[in-house]
Amino acid sequence: MSQRNVLCPSPLRFLACAVFPIALILPGTSLAQTDTTGVDSATVQLKPSFGLGPGMFAFYGDVGKDHEGYSPLVTRVGYELRASVPITQWLEGGIYVLHGRLGVNERSLERNLNFESRITTGGLQFRYNFLQFLNPKRVVEPFVTVGFESVEFLTKTDLQDDQGRAYNYWSDGTIRDIAEDAQNAGDAVLIERDYDYESDVRESNLDGFGKYLERTWAVPVGIGARMDIGNGFDFRMGATMHFTFTDLVDGVTDQSVENRAGDAKNDRFLFSSFSIGYTLPGPRKKKDPKSTLSGEEIDQLAWAGDEDADGVEDVSDLCPHTPAGAKVDVNGCPIDGDNDGVPDHDDDELNTAAGAPVNARGVTITDEELLKAWLAYKDSGNVNVVASRVESFGKMKPAFVPVKRVYVVKVGTQVESISEDLIQKLLSIPDIRTVEHGDTTFYVVGNYETIPEGLRRELELRGIGVEGMVMAEENGRLIDVSAETAEARAKLEAPTTAPSPSKDLIVRVQLGAFRNPLSRNIFEGITDLVTIKGEDGLTRYYTGSFKQVNPAAEHKVKMLLKGFDGAFLVAFKDGKRVSMKEAGAKLTGKEDLRNLPSGSINKSLLRYRVQVGTFVGNVPMETMGKLIEMGDIEPVTSSDAVRYFYGKFTDRKSADDARTAIQAKGFPDAFVVGDMNGHIITAEDADGLMAQP
Predict the structure, then answer these.
(1) CATH topology for the 2-157+196-279 domain
(2) Which of 570, 593, 426 is nearest to 512 (CA)?
């Protein structure tokens, strides 16, 4: 035994050495870890975990011919005890001890060998949980393990029965007390094995190996799965193959004599187990020290004082944070001598007539200014709540905004569907766009400052078979200017031949084809949108106009990032749609251009929200207090108003429930809207998108 301790420490001593540094880590301490996945660094709580469970040993070596025909789950029983701590969020380190028995009974015409070995191992092990590749909300956590261990084995064999008679295996398959080739073999009697492994293999020295060490090193490699079962407990199951550095666990090697000889491979054994573990909780939060003051003393400390120095104690001050120097009444509120709603210290007109409307500085508002303010209110859209205070009209729109007139060529009008041939002709025009007015969609080309320029483009389009008419465009509206164009046509010298139409390739991005039209708000920021409803009843949306495939592909990527999952490229030339191969595109993968998606919206970007209200000007303090109490309120500012939205819900019912609760809080006009990647749409449009396949 002393010789054994010099070259290879026992598993228990090895385990004690390994435990010492880990034991220095107290429960609840932590280490700052750098997440190699690129995620922000996190602090890992070093909370020790302990586990205990049974398992089954299976042996793979010289005896039993690599365990052929045996199940690894129907062998000898063993037990595992482990302790571990997290090193990072994805790596765990620990120590463990295994103890049990493994053995094999080999019975054949060539040889009859058996052994049973008492195994004790102890070592270090690391567990990796695939955090970077799995869903964070996973229930079952797969893992792999690797480690290094010390193995102690004590191997015995069953050579005699309980009466001390040696086993002699006869060719007829029986076991007798005398050898089959002995002179007195006729006196042999049948005996049976008692499976009592009484003979020490090393001491028997059947192969002349002498006093070899019954200790070795091994490398365990395993797989398994872990599942949290609540309250700090977890369940683990797995299988670990232990690759030893010796071929003597079964006492047989390639140097054994006669038919006992095996191969030169080292022995190994499998441990299949399950265990229950428990993780110690982290340190408890320190309780706030209790005050030794009485309730009255605490109230006196809390309420004593005059924060705004207006002469009124805070406990009685109904208007805290009064500006320095402002005159206040007995309640601490600034004095408003003319009762116009603006305190005297901010009032530039101290003698306003009773009932006259004023601006934020207390100055009387004229009738013209009131009209401008009302127009600003109307333009805000979906107004639910408008502040009643006069400061609401502090920001006015300019009295006159000049509208620029440009001239375009109207090449089509769509109320219902249009033919596929016409669609392809229109999409072959590089600068075509749509102007929508009510239920009608107008297709226009160009953007010219003079009528003659428009007339020249009209003639060019006629050369490719597209009839058009010059019209004026003002603020998104088309205006008939046929009288002006007639006069210009007379002055314009007609060319003898029509201009040759462009033969250039046009590549566009089709955002999708939808059974029901989408809300225009979804396409906010896409200024070159072309909308066409075909004879198949689908409404298609296009953006971009490129003469080369590569820039069109870059534009497609931008559209995918905006949530248009069904976006793909289409090409047109000479008024006809052509394949992407003809357009010069090259396939880089297994994509089949014949099976392009018809269109879809990334519904993971779609949410329902509750629009609580819209405010022009300042929000009353009482209303603002209610908004703050709700939490999860987001203000969205436009040029003339601020809208307040509550929550982000993945289904309509949750949003409707939230709307009902908000209405009960004093916002009766709250309603549900949709939010598509930051663009507000109607709830009905959001329902339609959710219903898309």
Answers:
(1) Porin (2.40.160)
(2) 570
